[in-house]
Every structure is written in C-alpha cells, then in structure tokens.
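Reopening: structure tokens for the iron/sulfur cluster complex, inputs below.
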Amino acid sequence: MPLNVNTSVFRQTVIRGVLAQPVGFALTFADATTEQPDAPRPDPGRWRMFWMPMSFVTTYNELPFAKIAQLAEGATTADVERALARGGHRSLSDFAALISPAAAPFLETMAQESHALTVKHFGKVMRLFAPVYLSNECVNNCQYCGFSRDNAILRTTLTVEQVMTEARHLVAEGFRNILLVAGEHPKLVSAAYLRDCVAALHAAGVPSISIEVGPLETEDYRPIVAAGCEGLVVYQETYNRDVYREMHTAGPKKNFDWRLETPERGYAAGMRRLGIAPLIGLWKWREEAIAMAAHAGYLLRQCWRAQLTVSLPRLRPAAGEFAPRYPMSDREMAQFVCALRLTFPHAGIVLSTRESARLRDGLMPLGVTMISAGSHTEPGGYTGAGSDKLHRTERGRVVAVPEISSEGEHCCAAEQFVIADQRSAAEVAAKLRALGYEPVWKDWDPALSETRSPS
Ligand code: SF4
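Re-run output (same inputs, fresh job):
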C-alpha cells in the first residue's frame, strides 16, 4: 500500500523519492524502511497521521523546487541522453533534463519519440472543443486578465437560454465537446446557475461538458456533475507562491492553496476529466513546467479514475495590457510539449487558439491531443447573445449603460484575451485531415466511466 509520507523524519526520503520516481507514481513511494519486517514501526498515533488524506498542497510544500530548477537550468548533455534512453517511466529529474537548455539540440529526437508515443496511445485523432463564455463579470483582480474587476470593460452574463443559443451555434458547426467558461462571481455565476447551464446542454444532447469557472466546494460541484458535467479545468496560473501573491491582488482567488486543491475537490465530486496548467509568461517557464509535472504526477496517482489533460497557455494581449514577464519561444514550447509527452505518455495535451495557426499546425503531430477551434473569448461571442444586458463597470461598479448597436464599439462584451488562430472550426478540421488526422468532435461518453476498471 502506498504511504503518504508527511513528516520531517522522512523529508529527505521524500525529496529523493520525488526526484527519482516515475512522475506518474511520485507519491507511491512507500518508504522502504517501513515495509521491512525488522524496521521500527511508528506508534498507532503516527500511523493515523500517515494515513490521513493529504492534498497536493502538502506535496507541493515538500517539493525541492530550487534543486529541481537547478537541474532544469544546469542539466548536461549526459543528463539529457540518460533521460532519453530511459524509456518507460521517466522521473521528475528526467523531465527537468528534457526541458533544459541542454536538451534543445535533441528536439528532433524528442519530437520523433513524442509523435510515436502519441500515435500509439491516442491514434491519429485530434479532439476538438469550443469554449462558451457565460459571463465576464469577476470579483477578482488578476493583473494579466481582461476580465479583472478593476478593468473598465463591457460586461454581461448570459441567461441559460442565451447559453443554449451559443451552444446551438457550436453544435451546428459540429462540436459535441463544450467548455463553459466564466469569471468568478459567486452571485451571477453561482453553482445553481452552472448546474442549470449544464443540465440544459445535457438535455440538448451535448455529450461532453466541462467547466472552467471559479473554484467551488466539493458539495457545490456534485449537482453540476449530476447534471451532466464530466470535466473540470482549473489553471493554477503560476505555481510560484510569491508571483501568485503579486498577480492576484483582490478577491477569493488570492488563496493559492484553495486553488491548488480544486482538481481534487472536483474529483471527489465525480469529475472524470481534470485539466491543469500554468499561465506561461508570469514566471520562469521551466520552474512552472516542473511544478505542473509534479501536480500531474500527483493527480494521475490520486485521481486515477479521471482522465488528465495538461495545457500550455501563453499569455495573450488583453484589456489591462499586461505584458508577459518571462516569454517562452515557439521552439521552447515545442520542447515543452515533447517533454510532457515523453514523461506522461497517457495524458491529454491541450493547445488552444491562443497560439497562431502556423505554430498549432506544427505542434499538432508532436504530442497535442486536443485543440479548440473557431473560439470566442467573450460571452455571446458566437451569436451576439447577451448584448441586451451589456453594461460597463469600473472597480466592480456599473458606471454607464452603453448605447447598443448592431455594429461598432458597444455591440458586444469584452473578450478575455485576443485569440491568435482566427480560423473557423471547419478550416481547422480540414487542416487536420490534410495532416492525416481525424478530427473528433466528441471527447467523452459516460459509458466509458462505467466500463473502465482499476489498473
Ligand atoms: S483570470 Fe479568472 S479570476 Fe482572474 S480576473 Fe480573469 S476571469 Fe477573473
């Protein structure tokens, strides 16, 4: 049985374990000494402590970030060759070597293995999804986001019927996998409202529904799951506590640990797809990548019934005009994709329309398994739904109701960020076919969760 080791007595063992164990099993290392017949056994009180449920926050707090970051920055050619030769289960140290500057000359080798692994585990298919933005109201201030409370932008929240208007547009385009996105606003985007949106989509025959909204309690997720939602996406934004504090200056999002534990709460409520990511550009990408890899390893182990996806969203221009502080080049992004695939052969890798058509086309064969297409990042973006309730806010207060016209500046709500790949869903699907991939519009069927057995 695995032990969740959480005491200073075993800290050094933990650190060695995290670095050396296959990432997918980073938390399985039962300290060998406790399994030996002659080894001293902890007293019953301490056993209880060991067996208490633990969240990734505990693991995160134990991670030797400085040491792993040093590995990622200072890996040698020999470290990279060792990581490449490993095959099978790669460790966090291997992952660090694969994203290091020393691995850059090995990109072609990595790309070939990454492609082969992806085809082996996923086939030559690409899953397509589209976001439906429900609301751009938000009680948080995130320095990098267009929806930040203090930004003076046009806002609206769709009614359930307006959500369906947007969804019907996407269904007509072919989508069967819809991601509901909203700013964090407990009153306007309540758990009950989310449940009603999901239920309406489900009743209309949309088989794959996920949410990317403000974190909720487990009990609040349950009715949403019961209504037909299987997926929960929550980006940690940055895994660096200090940067997180600096970026999130107001609202409930300031709580780093609460956000970090969100996938586990969703899983406890029955979510069967979990998506995580850092927002690339806020902090050094290699450190973010390592933290996300540790998080992914934890979730693969602890939330084994769920399908895990990881994303690589890079900051895009948005209201507020926040500029990325730590940019990542296209080539580094390709290296990141390959390192993820080589370390997590079974994890889904998501690439959104934040990236240009050219880069997306180039990354598709390398390890990406899921992409958005033809996206809008504003509520009502596909059909104009919700424009009847447009209003401008400043520091969370409505300051003026703009004249509504069918064209011009005041016709629609503000977008969260500017997308880069402007192609329609049909154009993206055609490109996929040209690359030899089958576009798949449906990502999940509830029957899969009934037939899947423990591994
Ligand atoms: S990132 Fe999310 S929580 Fe932060 S301002 Fe934007 S919508 Fe709100």
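The mean pLDDT is 86. Residues 61 and 182 are 29 Å apart (CA to CA). Marking as resolved unless the reporter disagrees.
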